[in-house]
Amino acid sequence: MKHTLTRHGFYAAALSVLLAAQLALTACVGVQFGNSARVETPAELPPLAQQVLAPQGVLKVGVYLGSPTSWVKDAQTGASLGVAFELGHALAQQLQVPVQVVQFPRVAEVIEALKAGQVDMTFTNATAARAKEVDFTPPLIQLELGVLVPRSSSIRSFADVDKAGMRLGVSQGSSSQGVLGQRLKQATLVPVPALTQVQQMLASRQLDAFATNKGILFELAEKMPDMHVLADNWGVENLAIAIPKGRAAAMPYLLDFAQQAQQTGQLSQMARRAGLRGMVPTGAAVLERK
Questions:
Q1: Which CATH superfamily groups domain 10-141+237-273?
Q2: What is the pLDDT of residue 5?
Q3: Residue 83's CB: how many other CB atoms inside 10 A?
Q4: What is the DSSP string of 272-284?
Q5: What average pLDDT does range 140-165 have in this prediction?
Q6: Band of the pLDDT at 197, cuts 50, 70, 90?
Q7: Helix crossing, 266-273 with 83-95: angle to 10°?
Q8: Is 159 strand, coil or helix?
Q9: What is the spatial distance between Cα 60 and Cα 120, in angstroms, rounded to a whole number?
Q10: Which pLDDT tens digit goes with each residue over 72-131?
């Protein structure tokens, strides 16, 4: 029997009938999974979704450490958190397959792994350039872009950054590097290989400031009391679920999963557990399929 994925038909009917009890969490390969988001699971799983989204029988989730939108660790418990991390586990649970968390030093390497089919999904900034390389759901979270500076710095707003002699750090290969590389005329951009190096480079004054989304910046600022995040912003990131090209057959299923996570509040719970800050108020905007 041929199975197809549409918004109507048997999947829509199955989605309306929730299981009376939650499925047990699938095993996590490589990284311990704590504080799982509870997800509602369709009573019947379309086989095509499982085959397309997790072709090797395990859902490989690409993450990078240090960003609440991707993967962070609770300072007290050591539990793994992060929107990409938890969404990956929730999707694997719904697909009824194991999950494998694959860590990379920076987001650019996650995107490369998606392009090569080495990982099956992540959650990241959905830029036009990246959309040529991987497929995205519509944006689920909007996040302000900002700047982290020493409290003693003369930089008071983003407008103060673009001056001769200023060394502005950005994550190597990130969308911030691409945008600011074209936007800034006088400041020197300094690509940083990994977020774990930002703290040392700011403390040693190899950088005058560091720019990325405010979720990451507030995470860094907590570890550096002499640093603070500027109040203004220089743009907005639109974050979405990303999957490799060539898997469009499963996109209707993925869109329903994303819509469910957003409408039920599961996504906001994941963001809160990860300590994600800097989100743009959306006025209860809901993901719509186009």
A1: Periplasmic binding protein-like II (3.40.190.10)
A2: 39
A3: 31
A4: HHTT---BPP-SS
A5: 96
A6: very high
A7: 140
A8: helix
A9: 5
A10: 999 889 999 999 999 999 999 999 999 999 999 999 999 999 999 999 999 999 999 999
Q: Which long-range contacts (CB under 8 A, 24 or more apart) does 155-161 make?
A: 155/208, 155/209, 155/230, 156/230, 157/230, 157/231, 157/232, 158/230, 158/232, 158/233, 158/234, 161/187, 161/209, 161/211
DSSP designation for 150: E
Stated as kind and residue range, the H or E segment containing 208 is none
The CATH 3.40.190.10 domain(s) of the chain lie at: 10-141+237-273, 143-235
Q: Based on C-alpha coordinates, what's the Rg of the chain?
A: 20
Neighbours of 192 (CB within 10 A): 23
The one-letter amino acid code at 231 reads A
**Is residue 36's pLDDT more than 50?**
no
pTM: 0.78
3-class SS shares of the chain: helix, strand, coil, % to 5: 35, 25, 45
Q: Fill in the DSSP letter of residue 42.
A: B
C-alpha–C-alpha distance, residues 223 and 229, integer Å: 12
CA distances to 147, 152, 203, 214, 232 from 187, rounded to whole Å, are 13, 19, 19, 20, 18
